[in-house]
Amino acid sequence: MEPGAIYFDGNSLGRPLRSTLEALTDAIQQQWAQGLIRSWDRWRELPLQVGDQLGQSLLGACRGEVVVADSTSVNLYKLARAATAAQPLRRVVVVEEDNFPSDHYVLQGMAAFSDLEVRTFPVDPDEGWHLQDLDKALDEGVALVCLSHVSYRSGALADMKGITRAVHARGGLVLWDLCHSVGVVPIDLTDAGADLAVGCTYKYLNGGPGAPAFLYVRQELQERLRQPIWGWFGQQDQFEMASTYRPVQGIGAFQAGTPSILGALAVAEGVRVVAEAGMPAVREKSVALTSYAVDLAERWLEPLGFRLASPRDPLRRGSHISLHHPHARHLTGVLIEDGVLADYRAPERIRLGLAPLTTSFCDVHDGLRRLGELASEHLRTSEAAT
Amino acid sequence: MEPGAIYFDGNSLGRPLRSTLEALTDAIQQQWAQGLIRSWDRWRELPLQVGDQLGQSLLGACRGEVVVADSTSVNLYKLARAATAAQPLRRVVVVEEDNFPSDHYVLQGMAAFSDLEVRTFPVDPDEGWHLQDLDKALDEGVALVCLSHVSYRSGALADMKGITRAVHARGGLVLWDLCHSVGVVPIDLTDAGADLAVGCTYKYLNGGPGAPAFLYVRQELQERLRQPIWGWFGQQDQFEMASTYRPVQGIGAFQAGTPSILGALAVAEGVRVVAEAGMPAVREKSVALTSYAVDLAERWLEPLGFRLASPRDPLRRGSHISLHHPHARHLTGVLIEDGVLADYRAPERIRLGLAPLTTSFCDVHDGLRRLGELASEHLRTSEAAT
Prior knowledge:
Chain A is an alpha/beta fold. Chain A is built from 13 helices and 13 strands. In chain A, helix 8 (189-192) links the parallel strand 6 (173-177) and strand 7 (196-199).
């Protein structure tokens, strides 16, 4: 990043760690170039090892419940199909209206290829959603509920435990999308009684563009659920070359084809660094960063027509906030040109992602001041034009 | 690789190119670390660009028919489901008995989740298979035939054009697995009238362990076929964040989630180097290498109980050969310990992959001489023991 630039997109693509290049250089020069095919002895279990590392240090999962593999969409597909196939009398999948678009796409695709029905329930685009709205969407036909732990737009943080309990009371399973919470919000899947989860690693885990995603299946469900993409890495004794699929026991069966080794190694670096910092410290800085941004926005930006489009209570949000402004699209453009990298999110929101490991309080101060200056300028120009 | 070692596994994991590390270092230090989220402007189309580069230079595909994405298994799943969904009155998928095991697994999984039937037809494990055996398996119920272009075990090379024509005559589609032929055998999907293809990039394309695979869909089929994993990278104007899936036109819709960018860049290096060498030269050296290996095996190894388990005609094989020996498993072990890296393939075969870019005639000479010496020793020891 050029000197003086400010990065508010660590929630979209985390910055590379210094150790990432070192780890990949070693993997290419030693493991791949020297070890060659023999390195599969160490690579074979890598997706499970990195999965355990991630699961145990950041997700509150037990050993053997997480694997790093494929993309978030492919993992969501595998788990959602597994969950619905296991409950043939329940043909409805419920998804929050404001869930990340590609989660909708995966479920819509599943419905188009089957007799499943996708049902949405309303969500407040700024404040997140309320249990009673979800509750109205639940009935005896619901096999699965797909929810984001942290909303990609508002940053609203869901009550994982309460919601999981409510869905379980109606007999369904819950699949959590952890993309916007993993590595930045404390997660305890075991304590929450969570069933299934997926997430990406290129945001707060700094795994790099398109790094492999992860998936979680609660141990007791692993026997009962069967994912649909039967592949080489789910097979027992793969080098026996049996032509009949006999899946391994446990989370390994939720893998499909050959996993990206360089990708998994990059993920391992990100997980290690976040775990070293420790989730309590990471969360503390995250809350302080978003709170500081909200304070400054109130003081400097609300008078210029901005409105906080995220929960005001820091305990009810993740590590990004959104600011609504009628000219948000234009303002995001000039802000980026000015070296403050932020995201426009429809409708009419500037989204500021504050990655605790790499965002400073000075970044927040300077970035919001700059946004205020640009907005004032824009206001003056618009007024002069009218 | 340690000095003196010989690598006969370039058909399983190709060696890294010198430019791979350079390309990935640049991608991490410049594109990712400096460009950050802005680099998605150039990365967004990368899977399609590398797909075109691969398709046009090595597959005889037209522009817009190939994309680099996901793993071979996930791609096979997407295309096989797309092909069978488009032909609801045909419920049979035919697969060669000796196809790569994971191709079987993917199809078995599809059948377990639907009303599809998987039908196999016999293949000679050494010589490959005959059109009449396939023909017997074809009838009006067959939607799709899945075949390997080059057999993973024997190296037998299929007549892509003749077979495709035979299947088309019965109204089915053909899906070619190009894992063992891409980058080493001339392929002309357009001339062959091929429908669908998948393949990996970590063998003769030197993309690295778990590098993204590719898929091909003939242009005229792209409108008609709809793949089942509807994802973020198949969506029109993805950053409009529409919650309804509207796929892009063309091959892009066969993508699912966020693609591995480092993986695609490594693939681009491999494709570039093979294309620079030129497929005629690559094939010429490949034929010379396997022919030399067959000659030496006849002279040195047949007297020791080995038998060629690959087609003797070099035009009927890819770039690896298999040698049958009753103690192949044991001999492969001692051969590898001795620094000659080869593969054991059940039943009772040593497989020698001769990657033209990185295998020398001296490697073939020295490796086979060493195998002969070890086999003689083994024979003496076994005789002494009896």
